Inverse folding.
């Protein structure tokens, strides 16, 4: 079943054509990666999918519903995490999660907050104020918030960028488990090519606001005639290469 269908999205900021006709499909339980050099248009694309930025043209459908016409219904089944999103610093971690559980109108908010604290292994942080957290701890709390409503689509902008290798590995394992066990579709951006190779079923390579290649990590390496995704990335970023 298709969870996300974006068709021909475009967005210009002044003289900059940030996104120039991006189309994407993500299925149930699929982990999709959006890759590309700095400034390629990844975050702008994610923000259009989340209804945070209005596209100049193009359409977004989620769960078969048009985002522009069914915004509340669609977005209640989606969640998002990014390190640049703030959380209220004066609140304790558990208070933040309680507040989001109520915002999403969950039926048993307390139980869900307890479950999510266990899932993300953030029990020791529950009584700490958000402002006191390290960036890696903050990232884990952001992910807890992002999973709290059991989203059908989870959009993550560089989910493990602030995590140490051990925490990053655990979070990657957790996200893959969530996708496989619950059918949640994941769309992630990352500059960590090993992470993308390990996690993503399908990769969409963005350059200058367009998708220039799509496929599994192996397919992309074959298309570009190189050994791995890191080399694909370097070819695109340094030589502006497109697949053979
Ligand atoms: N609000 C804005 N106003 C003006 N220009 C913007 C705005 N947001 C993004 N841009 C520009 O649009 C282009 C795409 O930016 P975007 O943040 O989508 O890239 P990105 O692929 O997410 O990059 P990164 O990997 O660095 O996060 C860039 O040239 C950026 O400067």
């Amino acid at each position: 079943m298709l969870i996300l269908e974006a068709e021909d999205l475009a967005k210009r900021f002044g003289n900059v054509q940030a996104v120039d006709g991006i189309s994407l499909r993500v299925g149930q339980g699929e982990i999709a990666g959006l890759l590309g050099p700095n400034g390629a248009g990844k975050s702008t694309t994610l923000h259009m999918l989340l209804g945070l930025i209005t596209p100049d043209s193009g359409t977004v459908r989620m769960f078969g519903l048009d985002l522009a016409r069914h915004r509340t219904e669609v977005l209640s089944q989606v969640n998002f995490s990014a390190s640049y999103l703030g959380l209220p610093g004066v609140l304790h971690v558990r208070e933040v999660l309680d507040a989001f559980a109520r915002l999403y109108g969950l039926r048993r908010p307390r139980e869900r907050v307890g479950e999510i604290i266990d899932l993300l292994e953030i029990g020791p942080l529950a009584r700490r104020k958000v402002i006191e957290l390290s960036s890696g701890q903050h990232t884990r709390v952001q992910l807890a918030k992002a999973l709290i409503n059991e989203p059908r689509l989870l959009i993550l902008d560089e989910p493990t960028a602030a995590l140490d290798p051990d925490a990053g590995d655990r979070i990657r394992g957790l996200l893959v488990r969530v996708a496989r066990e619950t059918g949640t579709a994941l769309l992630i951006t990352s500059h960590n090519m090993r992470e993308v190779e390990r996690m993503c079923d399908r990769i969409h390579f963005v350059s200058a606001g367009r998708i220039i290649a799509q496929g599994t990590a192996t397919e992309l390496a074959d298309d570009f005639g190189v050994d791995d995704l890191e080399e694909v990335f370097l070819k695109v970023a340094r030589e502006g290469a497109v697949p053979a």
